[in-house]
Design a protein that fits this description.
Oligomer: single chain
Number of strands: 5
Helix content: under 10%
Shape: elongated
Number of domains: 2
Strand content: over 45%
Strand order of the largest sheet: 3-4-5
Radius of gyration: 28 Å
Number of helices: 0
Order of helices and strands: EEEEE
Largest sheet: 3 strands, antiparallel
Distance between the termini: 87 Å
Amino acid sequence: MRCSPICPAEFNGDGYEELTLPCFIAFGAVTQDNLDDLEQFTKEIRFASNTSNGPKLAAGAFYYDSSFNVTSMMVTMAQQRSFKCTTWALILTSVLCG
């Protein structure tokens, strides 16, 4: 029996045919990623001068902290990975007015 390159078949019980390539796949290959425990914290502060003469100054700080877990669900197992990201910046600007 020869099959075409694309074979429609109903595998997961949802009532719709899925297209498989090549032909029949005997098992499900479902993968899924779950985002678990997302925590984020962001702060920013800015200061600016309001003078009519002399330089205009602005200063500030920025802080960002994030952590989360990703659980990858595969056919036979689950794998959990943790991620953490911290970013910060200090900013100082000046504009000379004449």
